[in-house]
């Protein structure tokens, strides 16, 4: 089945056919006016390449590393709640695709199956992503399970003090299983001191997800995080936020060499990946594109998403005139004007906008 798809556009079309309207809106939509979601795409569309020619690109290595783990391409699988509504195997399908392809996946604390079952499904390294849903005793009980299950790092998400007003879901009168869980009163009270306590108890490489400013990036490295995860939750939380690629340069400057930087938000093509890396990200993560792959064909659909991204990355590197990921620098980019309106489907011009 997976070889039938030759572009990720085809995968998205198949996902739309397979998923219910409720699930499609949960996966594809954003908050309120969806301005933040559109700005993720607009920021990527506002950058053009400056290629170099007469470079020997007969050999290209698109591999990268994140926190010491090798990635076949610099694309990881972002944490997504309620994966079980996109494919019956849920997080296990993601883990198996990541293992087969050769990348890392973040396992959300609000997806199924259990963190233990997901960890045991494959031997490759995995990162656990935490939504705080209880007091420190609750956190310690959960993190004890995380450590016993063998997760290699911990990611704390901090941009969900309140659930974003996702109007597509609201008008459907529907909420995903992850939203039906309690604990927001604890999430609203998280502070830097809470982060310190969680980080100390976990004793794992620590990733802070949801950073959107240089000020918070600087604080994060002062608090000893291993990686700063630049994210606006795919435009699903604070509306009228900036696109993540727009945020990236100031955050990279604030972090310096003290931590690694990873980014998500609007990544749809290999060219998007390379733009983020040229501006200082160590790797990117995919959310919507991951979900569409699962919706189109489960584990095999997601694996095909990654294979297509790899092909796009290699082709773009060759045409850009670089052989290795570490050669990417801002000099290969230039500001430009987008060719048209930017939205969640605008990078796929051969299909109408899917609602």
Task: Give a verbal description of the structure.
- The protein is α/β, with parallel strands linked by helices.
- The protein has a single domain, classed as Alpha-Beta Barrel (TIM Barrel).
- It has 13 helices and 12 strands.
- It starts with 7 loop residues before the first helix and ends in a 20-residue tail after the last strand.
Mean pLDDT: 95
Largest sheet: 8 strands, parallel
Class derived from helix and strand content: alpha/beta
What order do the SSEs take from the amino end to the carboxyl end, as H and E?
A: HHHEEEEHEHEHEHHHEHEHEHEHE
Number of strands: 12
SSE blueprint:
Elements: H1 8-18, H2 21-28, H3 35-45, E1 47-49, E2 64-66, E3 69-71, E4 75-77, H4 91-101, E5 105-108, H5 115-121, E6 126-130, H6 136-149, E7 153-157, H7 167-172, H8 184-187, H9 192-202, E8 206-211, H10 214-222, E9 227-230, H11 244-255, E10 260-263, H12 270-278, E11 283-286, H13 288-320, E12 333-335
Parallel strand pairs: 4-11, 5-6, 6-7, 7-8, 8-9, 9-10, 10-11
Antiparallel strand pairs: 1-12, 2-3
Looking at this protein, list some descriptive labels.
355 residues, alpha/beta, 13 helices
Give the structure's gist in a few sentences.
The protein has helices spanning 8-18, 21-28, 35-45, 91-101, 115-121, 136-149, 167-172, 184-187, 192-202, 214-222, 244-255, 270-278, 288-320, and strands at 47-49, 64-66, 69-71, 75-77, 105-108, 126-130, 153-157, 206-211, 227-230, 260-263, 283-286, 333-335.
């Amino acid at each position: 089945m997976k070889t039938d798809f030759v572009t990720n556009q085809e995968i998205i079309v198949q996902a739309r056919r397979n998923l219910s309207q409720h699930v499609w809106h949960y996966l594809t939509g954003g908050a309120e006016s969806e301005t933040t979601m559109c700005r993720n795409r607009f920021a990527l569309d506002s950058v053009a390449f400056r290629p170099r020619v007469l470079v020997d690109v007969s050999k290209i290595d698109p591999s990268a590393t994140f926190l010491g783990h090798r990635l076949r391409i610099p694309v990881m699988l972002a944490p997504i709640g309620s994966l079980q509504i996109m494919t019956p195997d849920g997080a296990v399908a993601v883990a198996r695709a990541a293992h087969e392809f050769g990348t890392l996946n973040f396992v959300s604390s609000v997806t199924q199956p259990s963190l233990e079952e997901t960890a045991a499904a494959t031997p490759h390294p995995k990162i656990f992503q935490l939504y705080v849903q209880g007091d420190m005793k609750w956190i310690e009980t959960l993190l004890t399970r995380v450590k016993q299950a063998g997760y290699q790092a911990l990611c704390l998400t901090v941009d969900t003090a309140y659930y974003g007003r996702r109007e597509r879901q609201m008008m459907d009168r529907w909420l995903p299983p992850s939203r039906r869980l309690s604990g927001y009163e604890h999430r609203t009270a998280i502070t830097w001191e809470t982060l310190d306590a969680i980080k100390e108890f976990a004793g794992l490489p620590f990733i802070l997800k949801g950073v959107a400013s240089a000020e918070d990036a600087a604080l994060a490295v002062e608090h000893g995080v291993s990686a700063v995860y630049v994210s606006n939750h795919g435009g699903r939380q604070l509306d009228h936020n900036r696109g993540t690629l727009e945020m990236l340069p100031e955050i990279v400057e604030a972090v310096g060499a003290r931590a690694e930087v990873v980014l998500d938000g609007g990544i749809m093509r290999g060219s998007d990946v390379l733009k983020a890396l040229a501006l200082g990200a160590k790797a990117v993560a995919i959310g919507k594109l991951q979900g569409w792959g699962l919706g189109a064909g489960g584990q095999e659909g997601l694996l095909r998403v990654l294979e297509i991204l790899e092909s796009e990355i290699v082709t773009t590197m060759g045409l850009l005139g670089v052989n290795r990921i570490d050669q990417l620098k801002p000099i290969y980019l230039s500001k430009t004007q987008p060719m048209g309106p930017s939205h969640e489907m605008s990078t796929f011009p051969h299909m109408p906008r899917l609602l």
